[in-house]
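Mods, move this if it's the wrong board.
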Amino acid sequence: MVIGGGLAGLAAGVALADAGCRVRLFEQRPYLGGRATSYVLPNGAHVDNCQHVTLGCCTNLEDFYRRVGAAGKIKFCDRLFFLDPQGRTGVMQAGLLPAPGHLTGSFLSFAPLSFADKLSIARALAAILFAGGKPKDAFASEPISMLAWLQKHKQTPRAIERFWRVVLVSALDEELGRTDAHYGIDVFWKAFLKNSTGYRMGVPAVPLADLYDGCRASIENKGGEVIPRSPVRSLRFEKTMVRGLEKFALKAVIFDGGREESGDAFILAVPHDRVLDLLPPEIRAANPALADLEKIKVSPITGVHFWFDGEVTQEPFITLLDTQTQWIFNKTALYGRPEAQPTNVIPSEPGSPASPVLARGSGEATDLLLSDEGTESGQYLQLVISASYDLLKKSREEIIDLCLKEVRQVLPAAREAKLVKATVIKEASATFSPEPGVDRWRPPQATQTPGLFLAGDWTATGWPATMEGAVRSGYLAAEAVLKAAGLPQKFLVPDLPASGLSRLFD
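Not the wrong board. Structure tokens:
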């Protein structure tokens, strides 16, 4: 039995179904995908709760998409476009050189960085490369923040702000001073240095919920069930005696109305704070690996959706420099069709912390948000701000005004276009925070309690809070279930191998 229909739970359920197990997956919401999903609006259109992307180095996520028939719904781009408020542009794109030199040409011509910035970056990248992605001063027993590591390697302030921070805050959803250096270094080693295809960005060409259409079929076609709208209220454990010692085993899950569902094994694929709520003190005491779960902090992400009455950019996505807005995704171009949206956004699950809310802005936005003019023929953009601590305190009106000002500053065509509609979605607990030393508190997927297994990007996966990390946790949980049943099987896919000259350092 799998509890939770996010990526971790779906990955575990699909893997176990492929292995011949009868899987029952319960999800409290009416839709699958967890935090990486979209919401159906009254006119049948979708709004993603936040833009999610994959990279070429995300091998397990790629495997999961293949298993559920969603691989063809991802558009991969090998060109990353950067833009600063002064109109200077930069492009990262692989050239003819093998890894790790495949991005050298575009890096040398990257206009937003000076020669001194590039020289300092090159020195730090060399330190990562020559250590095979594991420099001793970042992987020592005493954790160090990414910011401290960069300062130790004499990075210029502009290099930190316009290169390292731009990439890592988006990838890890945390500020550099609150990020374990080994996570930041992993991003650059696996995505930019190790293999010439690792940096390629894959963006869903459909609303996020559409990526999971095949998950239900993958489970149900093999005799399983997917049951939405099933919030778990508690767990029932039974005492057993093992070699004269008293132990507890998980026997059933209790839903609304006292309904019980039993099973041979249970995977809790829910947020770590929910695990703390569900497990009684005696179970936590019997599992030392769960003792410090409450120490794992969370970080926020804010998504801002704009609908203009005309085209404001032809780029599929843009990375912004020196602005609070970090990414602009051209959903009209990515979906291949205009996305008309209704006047009112109706949450799929009332009261859900991730439910979208129509935000009526101040000034110009107030009037425009009341009209559907231009949504059929205009352009739909989604903006993403990771580690958006400052925005949590701001009203949605303030966020719209702030982001609209930044978009019009960097995109001249947006100054002439009318903003027809805007939506703000705040995810206060979007991911766990990859703060220095957090790995000490991340538990394995197998527990000391018979029948109880864990899945979630917050478990011990070796990866930060990404879709790749979530899928890895689901695969590892499925492996743990089968191992406990005496039917060992491997689902985890190896990392992207080193290519070119990078093989000399791996």
